[in-house]
Hints:
This protein is α+β, with helices and mostly antiparallel strands. The chain has helices spanning 11-17, 26-35, 90-95, 116-125, 127-153, 156-166, 184-191, 195-207, 223-228; strands spanning 37-41, 46-48, 56-62, 64-70, 76-83, 87-88, 102-105, 109-115, 179-180, 211-214, 217-220. It folds into 2 domains: 1-153, Jelly Rolls, CATH 2.60.120.10; 154-231, Orthogonal Bundle (Arc Repressor Mutant, subunit A), CATH 1.10.10.10.
Amino acid sequence: MSELDPQPFQLIDMLAASAWWPGLDAAQRQRVTAEVEERRFPGATVVMRRGETVEAWTGVIEGLVKMSSVSAAGKSVTFTGIGAGGWFGEGSLLKSEARKYDIVALRDTRIAWMPRSTFDWLLSSSIAFNRFLLLQLNERLGQFIGLVEYERMLEPDARVARCLAEMFNPHLYPGHRSELEISQEEIGYLSGVSRQRVNQALQVLARAKLVEVEYGSVRIVDLAALRRYGS
């Protein structure tokens, strides 16, 4: 690695950039830093399976995962994608229930793994952490309501637009800026649209000056308009 190459994002960087971190005191930060570990998963592998006991709260340090489920008949549905900076799984931990979905790495992904004991301790010791979780759950509920809406009511162009806009929720995905490193195939997985149709939709959105498309990435030009697209 040359001196000009960017340094990889470390676990401690991800923790420090998380919205709940500033609310912790020194002792809480020390324990979290000591007990949260990093796990790595190659692309196209299952990170966590539906039906497993949930033993950790998890975040994405680097990479991209999808939250999905497959029926007994083989029909697959993707609920959402989670990129760098996003945390997930708090609902299953709070309810102490088996996981209701699969988590699949869409590319090589590094996961922050907070044990249940650490998560439960933060719940009992940090008001700020509890406030964060309330906001997180509310944002996730709004995201899923939106998903049902655009799945049932919107055309493919609008579904792709809303899918991209979702990835820029500053609370759920604080690691994203104006450019999203994502392939058209990955957008297809997350929006429920074929790769070929994603390509067409991106061309439409680019002509409307809402996005700029590069190989392996999409730069958002007008996020507000992207969120309204198809309304």
